[in-house]
Amino acid sequence: MADNTCSSEYCNGGWAEVLTHMSPYGYANFGIAFGLGLSVVGAAWGIWLTGSSLVGAAVKAPRIRSKNLISVIFCEATAIYGVIMAIILANKVKKPDESTFYLDDNWDWNGFYYAGYGMFSSGLSVGLTNIASGVSVGIAGSSCAIGDAQDASLFVKILIVEIFASALGIFGIIVGIIQSNACTFPIAALE
């Protein structure tokens, strides 16, 4: 039986070691990527849900085509919230003043890791909230298109529900901004 255990100094003991030894810059950039990527997934999912119903219901009632595009715009707003948060987070990532391989012993390690973890959690919060918002807006927009095709008086009533579903994304970006507010990367060693 062959032993597949790595004996090199470059091996790790598993995912726990990989995650605990990852750079705070890596966590910050993953937070930016998750915030933007998951927001776009939420927008695409919502557009898929509402767009397919809109096209199908427009066969029966062509008058609903243009006014029900507001549902697609609400879905797209969730992707825009992710872009806004990605810009905010990307502007917080700063490189150290000195370009060295190792940082000084008196470096603010606590602040360094706090910034990385905070930006990761902020981006993940915004991304997951925007998936929920995009799906909610998509389902409400789908119902709006189908309901409007049946009875034109239902459009405004269902649109209000859709606005509240879109507000979930706004709440997510507010929470993300609050989470990332204190996240600043130290750029120099402590005095």
From TrEMBL:
Pfam families: ATP-synt_C
UniProt xrefs under InterPro entries: ATPase_proteolipid_c-like_dom, ATPase_proteolipid_csu, F/V-ATP_Csub_sf
Membrane topology according to the record: Multi-pass membrane protein
Transmembrane domains' residue ranges: 27-48, 69-91, 111-133, 154-178
Top-level taxonomic group: Eukaryota
Record carries keyword Nucleotide-binding: no
Subcellular location per the Swiss-Prot or TrEMBL entry: Membrane
GO cellular component: proton-transporting V-type ATPase, V0 domain
Location of the V-ATPase proteolipid subunit C-like domain: 30-89, 121-178
Keywords on record: Hydrogen ion transport, Ion transport, Membrane, Transmembrane, Transmembrane helix, Transport
GO molecular function, one term: proton-transporting ATPase activity, rotational mechanism
Family: Belongs to the V-ATPase proteolipid subunit family.
Name assigned to this protein: V-ATPase proteolipid subunit C-like domain-containing protein
